[in-house]
Amino acid sequence: MDYMTFDAAAWLESATIDPAVLALRPDYRALLITAEGLLPGPSDELSERLLADAESAARERFGDGPVEEHPHLAAWREAFRAFGAKPQRTRPSAEALLRRVPAGLPRVDRLTDIYNAISVGHVIPLGGEDLDHYVGAARLVRAEGDETFETTAGGEPVVEHPAPGEVVWRDDTGATCRRWNWRQCTRTRLTHDTTRAMFVLDALGPMDDTALKAAGDQLMEALMASSPGVTIASRVLGAE
């Protein structure tokens, strides 16, 4: 994606959700946030504080109880089952993170740590994509099955294909996130070189619009605190 010609508002307007996805979950909404002028790098004091606060909040909220019984996570398990995924094996991303809280959340890099902290703190699936490696518009679709998905196995790069009917985010090149929010591809993942990104916050019925906005607002505040001068734009898709 050409940095010099990138128009955040126009790019966000080009993003779509296929009606076949909304037929599965008419209550689905995606808050897309673009950020330009990010300062990438390793985990730092700010990202550590956000993660520590999220861990404390999660321990207070869930204790030793089963995180999957949280209404929003239970809804996401239902959504996964609706397109044939088994949530016991491929968990919604927020559930997978919350299950790691007792042992400590991963410390990856400052941008990933920030969005993971928001995901855990607000119990919402949340992912980030590097816009410099994104090609064309973002689309949430039910896969044909021939889309490429670049990942790793045993430390080596491999190309997988989603199952037909699987819900995936994709661009012009291939699938960027499989099983709605389960796993992101290696091609568009955030790195220490990422300066422009798109973040996806996934909401179902138990998370109302006010709560979705609160999660997005905290993410934007954290990005502005970590990257002074960042330029941010956003758009909500779905349930229109």
The CA-CA distance between the termini, in Å, is 28 Å
- Sketch the major β-sheet: 5 strands, mixed
Number of helices, counting only DSSP H or I runs of 4 residues or more:
7
Ranges with pLDDT <50 over ≥5 residues? none
In total, the number of domains comes to 1
Structural class: alpha+beta
CATH class designation: Alpha Beta
What is the CATH topology descriptor? Phenylalanyl-tRNA Synthetase, Chain B, domain 3
Architecture, CATH level 2?
3-Layer(bba) Sandwich
Mean pLDDT: 95
Helical fraction equals: 25-40%
Organism: Streptomyces violaceusniger
InterPro entries: B3/B4_tRNA-bd, Phe-tRNA_synthase-like_B3/B4
Domain B3/B4 tRNA-binding: 74-228
GO molecular function, one term: RNA binding
Keywords, please?
single chain; 240 residues; alpha+beta; Phenylalanyl-tRNA Synthetase, Chain B, domain 3; 4-stranded antiparallel beta sheet; 7 helices; 11 strands; 33% helix; 22% strand
Note down, in words, how this protein is organized:
Helix 3 runs parallel beside helix 6. This protein is globular. Strand 8 and strand 9 form a beta hairpin. The chain contains seven helices and eleven strands. 33% of the residues lie in helices and 22% in strands. The chain is an alpha+beta fold and 240 residues long.
